[in-house]
Amino acid sequence: MATPCGYRHPVAMFRLQGSKVLAVDMTGDAVKAKNGSMVAYDGQMAFKKLSGGGEGVRGMVTRRITGEQMTLMEVKGQGTCWFADRASEINLVSLQGDKLFVESSNLLATGSGLRTGTSFTGMRGASQGNGLFTTTVEGHGQAAIMSDGPAVVLRVSSQYPLTVDPGAYIAHQGDLRQSFQSGVTFRTFLGEGGGEAFQIRFEGDGVVYVQPSERNSIAGDV
Amino acid sequence: MPFREINSKMIEATVAPGQRLFSQRGAMLAYKGEVSFTPNTQGGQGGVMSMIGRRAAGEATPLMTVEGSGTVLFGHGGHHIQVITLTGETLYVEADRLLAFDGTLQQGTMFMGSQGGVMGMVRGQVTGQGLFTTTLKGHGAVAVMAHGGVIEVPIGPQRPVHVDPQAYVAHHGDVRNKLSSALGLRDLVGRGSGEAFQLELSGSGAVYVQASEEKL
Prior knowledge:
The structure holds 2 protein chains of 2 kinds. Chain A is built from 4 helices and 12 strands, in the order E-E-E-H-E-E-E-E-H-E-E-E-E-H-E-H. Chain A has helices at 56-66, 123-128, 186-189, 218-221; strands at residues 13-17, 21-34, 38-51, 71-83, 89-102, 107-110, 114-120, 133-147, 152-156, 162-164, 169-182, 198-210. The longest helix of chain A has 11 residues, at 56-66. By secondary structure, chain B is mainly beta. Chain B has helices at residues 47-57, 117-127, 185-188, and strands spanning 3-7, 10-15, 21-24, 28-40, 63-74, 80-93, 98-102, 106-111, 132-146, 150-155, 161-163, 168-181, 197-210. The longest helix of chain B is centred in the N-terminal third of the chain and has 11 residues, at 47-57. Chain B is elongated. Chains A and B meet through strand 3 and strand 4 of A and strand 11 and strand 13 of B.
């Protein structure tokens, strides 16, 4: 088994089988995955429920306060485990010590070397219809995120800031600052808005994952 | 090969005189040539016993016979279609997932209890498949519908495969299946991992799994 990036421990290998099924080859280590997303496995596996918001008491308190109800399960064992969720497209993200911000509903699985936590998003979260908090994933390893339709990865650099629709945003990674833009004008109040009243603007250096579909959000209605 | 995949959600079937084809009623999208569609209410093939079986089981998805010469396009509900080629083995599939299949294939009904006894019957209930399932045997092609894409997972004697009952589509080969439950105390107090029931398939053959936990 290949051990990328000088890992000493055996690490679960993520690979895509088609665009909608994630296959994870495991050798005794544990991965975290969205509750109930296993579709098949061979070998020996054990499933245990975890809760989002990070580990320990602090995580528990965070969960209570934030309402970021991400239910994850820990899958541990030897063999291959296949994951899929409601026929969503799956994208693999590899992390080398950096941080991935992702909507909890879009997170499918994370490798054993990754930690998950919660962070505050402010107005942006509310406009996306996802609440005020979002999930963070950091460490070394691979994560699988889901999108409704194949996601595009858009690069943001210092000269090229990016503005995205809150409903189509799924995740971002790298050194990015985000600001919330509102295009609300007099016309919006008259019910003549263009349907693009709110946007998120990303500046800095990193990548943003955008799906070719829009969630139902307040921003999409005005 | 009578089935040709146009895209992931549509197949084209070629019918020639003397070659019959069965398909789910209403699944025809378009056709070219002289093709006739006759509903078969008589329960298709498999004799009276399997007809009674199908009736009793509610495993009576209306089928139609497609005959003539030409090409027919099939698709249904925007579901993904997987073409499975059988070379003598038996395919076990739920009737409502069957889109179309070769007329040369022998159609039958299997009582769940005959594989795995009481647990087999429980399995049928849990998976929403009921007490009976459809079997197809022989040489030919079968088009099966699934929500999302389908992956084929091989089953070996030393390599049993566990499948989420809701994601199970079909299986073929010499395979025994049983419902295994990993129901623990955690599930009872509402802290389950959502994977309480699994279908354990062992033997040799292959199982088809869809990329979704939704029924058709």
